[in-house]
Structures are given as structure tokens and as C-alpha cells.
Amino acid sequence: MNKFILAALITTSLLGCNSNDGEDVIVDKVGLDISALTDKQKQDYAQISTDINALVLFVAGVCVDNQENINPDFTTLNCNIADHLTNIAKTEYSDITLTNGKLDITRENNAQFIIKTDEDVKFKAPTISSDTLSYRFSSDNSITVQISGENDQILTTSFRGFYTDGSLSDNGSWTTESIKDQSFTFTDDENTQLIALTEGQALLTGKDKKTYSWSTNTTGKVILK
Question: Rounded CA gap, 75 and 85, in Å?
Fold first, then answer.
């Protein structure tokens, strides 16, 4: 086992599992080498890191709608992504295929939902990897959805998650998080079936605490800072 991975795992066990500190140590030691990325690669990682949240939100929304038809007063829900793979929406600027994973959805109140993972979300993103990638939000990591408006509901979202690329054993983890007070808006075009997270800002953190940030425009395309 790579000595950095071993050190990270030991540190994780010492820090405990009630925070994302252990994941941050892993990223810092064996994370994505941002300094080696071209601008095109940074664009791809940022777009995929943004769009995977849009896809997870779409599936969570389908599960919530289905559950509300059964029990409109539910407070918790487990959602299996595999049950919704045939009718999932698409993102315009990145090629992502969800494969499996389970979501834990908690209704905080009528206007706010918290999404975490019961099992890591697995997905394919050929632009950045030939292998299966994993996405986790547990402990302090989550997706928060806030609903506003009566007839035309607006969904704003913030997130922090931990990614792992199975093809990069020594250099394969990173985190992304939306920047405080710069939440994204979830958009869903019924005509094109395209979904996006628009007009927000986020930050990607990789090896040696190196970071870069981006925003998305009105159609969800990433603009590097």
C-alpha cells in the first residue's frame, strides 16, 4: 500500500467519522494534482463536479415527488438511484452516466431538504477518467436544497462532497464545495430534458491544499476564475 494512503487511513481512524477531516487529509496527501492540470482539464473537472450534483438532485427530486404522492408528511426517505436510470435527465456540458448509489433525504421543513449518501454514488465521466468514479456526501458533507416561491418554485442548492477516481490510486481524490452565499440555482428544461446548476460559485480542492474556483452562467456552463 502506498505510504501516503496508509498514513491517510491511519489519520482518518484517529480523527473519527463524525466529520470530513479524514477525507480532507486523504485529499491533501494523495489528491488530484491541480498544478499538473491544463485549463481544459480544470474546466472538465469543474463541469463534472458541478453537473454530478445536478443529476443527484434530479433523482432526489423524483424520489421526493413519488413519496409525497404516498405520504405528503414524510420526513426521511431512502432513494435508490438504480431505480431511476432509464428516465434520468441530461446535462448539456458534460457526459456523465450514473450507475448506482443510495441517497438519504431528510425534509428539514416544507422548504428545505438535506441529501446525503447511504452508499457512494457511482458514475462514469469519460472526459476525465476511464474508470468508475465515486461521490460521497456524509458526515459534514451534504447537498442542501432550499425551495422558494409559490407557483414558480425556485430551487437553490449548496453542496460539499468527496470524489474518488478509481483509476488514480496515488492521485485520485478531490473535494468540491459551493462558496458561501453563492448558491446555485437548479434549472430543469422540460422541452430539452436538460438540467443544470446555474449562477453559483464553487471551489475544488486537491493535493497539497491547492484549489481553484469557478462560476456557472445562466445555462450551467462553467467559467473558470
Answer: 24
Closest CA to 192 of 90, 122, 107, 100: 90
Whole-structure pTM value: 0.88
**Four-CA torsion 18, 22, 27, 30, nearest 10 degrees:** -150
Q: Which three cell numbers stand for residue 220?
A: 450551467
Q: What angle do CA 94, 140, 46 make, to 5 degrees?
A: 20
Q: Which long-range contacts (CB under 8 A, 24 or more apart) does 88-92 make?
A: 88/55, 88/58, 88/59, 89/55, 89/58, 89/188, 89/193, 89/194, 89/195, 90/193, 90/194, 90/195, 91/51, 91/54, 91/55, 91/194, 91/195, 91/196, 91/220, 92/194, 92/196, 92/219, 92/220, 92/221
Say if residues 27 and 173 touch (Cβ distance below 8 Å): yes
Q: Which of 49, 36, 30 is nearest to 162 (CA)?
A: 49
β-strand partners of 116: 104
Task: Walk along the chain (225 residues) and give the pLDDT tens digit of each residue.
Answer: 343 332 333 223 333 344 577 888 889 888 999 999 999 999 999 999 999 999 999 999 999 999 999 999 999 999 999 999 998 899 999 999 999 999 999 999 989 999 999 999 999 999 999 999 999 998 889 999 999 987 778 999 999 999 999 887 666 899 999 998 899 999 998 888 899 999 999 999 999 999 999 999 999 999 999
